[in-house]
Amino acid sequence: MQIQKSFKDTSGNGTLYLVPTPIGNMQDMTFRAVDTLKTVDLIASEDTRNTKKLLNYFEIDKPQESFHEHNASVKIPGMIEKLHDGLSIAQVSDAGLPSISDPGHDLVKVAIEENIPVVALPGASAGITALIASGISPQPHIFYGFLPRKKNQQIAFFQEKKSYPESQIFYESPFRVADTLGNMLEVYGDRQINLVRELTKIYEEYRRGTISEVLASIEEFPIKGECLIIVDGSDGLEKAESDFDSLSIKEEIESYIEDGDKTNAAIKKTAKRRQLTRQDVYKEYHEIED
User: For the Tetrapyrrole methylase domain, which residue ranges apply (predicted)?
Assistant: First the structure.
């Protein structure tokens, strides 16, 4: 059990600040984030060259130390020592919230183990920013980040996730996005998605539609720039397609009910999957004759 007093720490340790940076538009930097970078003793940067552009833009003159996935294990002990000496450190990634797709999480874990305060600042997040403008249900949702690159691994990943009811958020390279959507279409079926590129930048674009529609648009207008994919959650019909084809209408409805659906919801699902009217399925289930 540990209780952290973020701004009333009396241990003498420094503080590890997790500072979000813009995902494209420099004006998305918060006042608090700028002030924090101006007051810390050291900035731990995923790429010091990228962070230097940010620091120059906001006229911040603070020392940086390279901190990325290839040197994290070597760098963490020294940073923890500095924090124990009372120095404050701001950890930043190249874009967005740190500690998600970079080694910041490892530093956070060790800092917590060492009773060093860890303070997160709110700010830009590509996945959530795209989600709320997608038109796809924002809650519940699951953020997955980058997908496996190899086709067989990606197919296996989608097979595991296809029945999840939550909206899903993925990052993907513009060079792989067409292949990824093809694999997704094969496993998920033709769901509603958003393909978002160049978020917060001048060429920001949302392509909203079914997977097949978005794939067709890529063939006509190829994707350039950083992109992410928002996918509608499962409505439960994927399971029906694979498991219920040999069942009668009544057996299919009862199977949905066993899985937790209410009777009316199960009837509606069955009607949709079989492309029948809800009234006909209702009569069949309740054995009502015309």
Answer: 15-214
Characterize 189-211 residue by residue with b for buried, 16 or more Cβ atoms within 10 angstroms of its Cβ, and e for exposed. Answer: bebbbbbbbbbbeeeeeebbeeb
The helix or strand, by DSSP H or E, that contains position 123, with its residue range, turns out to be none
- pLDDT averaged over every residue in the chain: 90
User: Is domain 16-124 annotated with CATH 3.10.129.10?
Assistant: no
CA angle 221, 225, 230 (to 5 degrees): 80
Q: What DSSP string describes 26-73?
A: GGGS-HHHHHHHHHSSEEEESSHHHHHHHHHHTT----EEE--TTTHH
pLDDT digits (tens, 9 = 90+) for 49-75: 999 999 999 999 999 999 988 898 899
Cis ω for the linkage preceding 122 (within 30 of 0): no
Alpha carbon separation from 172 to 145, 177, 180, 197, 198 (Å, rounded): 8, 6, 8, 10, 12
Is CATH 3.30.950.10 the right assignment for the domain spanning 127-231?
yes
Residue 3 has pLDDT above 90, yes or no: no
Q: Do domains 16-124 and 127-231 have the same CATH topology?
A: no
Domain boundaries, the chain: 16-124, 127-231, 237-285
Band (pLDDT 50/70/90 cuts) for residue 244 is: low
In the chain, the largest separation of any two C-alpha atoms, in whole Å, equals 83
